[in-house]
Specification:
Layout lengths: L3 E7 L2 E7 L9 H15 L6 E6 L4 E3 L13 H19 L4 E6 L2 E3 L1 H8 L2 E4 L4 E3 L12 H11 L1 H9 L4 E2 H7 L4 E2 L2 H16 L3 H16 L6 H8 L2 H11 L12
Parallel strand pairs: 2-3, 3-5, 4-6, 5-7, 6-8, 7-10
Antiparallel strand pairs: 1-2, 8-9
Helix pairs in contact: 1-2, 2-9, 3-4, 4-5
Length: 259
Amino acid sequence: MSGRVVVTRDGPAAHVRFDNPAAHNALTGEMWLALRDAALGFAQDPSIRVVTFRGTGGKAFISGTDISKFADFATGEQGVEYERGIDDCMAAVDAIPCTTIAVVEGWAVGGGINIASACDFRIATPDAKFGSPIGRTIGNCLSAASVARIGGAVGVQFAKRMVLLGEMLTAEQLLASGFLLKIVERDALDAEIAALVPRAAENAPLTTRTTKATIRAMTFGDLPAIEALIEEVYGSADFRRGVADFLAKTKRVPEWEGR
């Protein structure tokens, strides 16, 4: 799987594009690291006042993460290390001190809902779908930080529906919850971004930075240590079965045994 993260600049705005359309913009390991490095760079550049995130092709924001590496996992500790790596990348996105905006066309799944949740605002097309159906696909789990981030953005009950029931939630549902700022038709999307970006860029940067740091501390200030639980999940026979079925492209939910 190939792919790249493309960063462009337009005055005080930086634009990040997830470019892997052949895989509906699923993130490879290299793309995760490129996202982290871009976010760290934004944090060091005070001339950047707003950052947008968008997928290439119009069919997906991000459809998930390349999980082919999971086939080589032999121990639960590898899962713990994997989640730590995702947390490291996501922490860099969380720490961007200026306003961040996710532009969601189509699917925002797995890593996609995580990244969208890290942004300050989200606008979406009417056909956008959001979810993290890992309990119906590969049978892994999320880190405490990912649960806090997604749950804090979409609300606990919607987060439960995404993970415990494997539901894909619609743009209309998440507009009503406050997760989305707006739903915008595709032909009006570029104009909406062009109007929203300068408004965000005009805000006092110290106000934005301080407010975001406060909310970040409230969200992640007292996370539980769940590494032992993550290790149990990634070391399970269920996880190995889920990965094998997913990579074999079977269309059924695996017969989980809870071990």
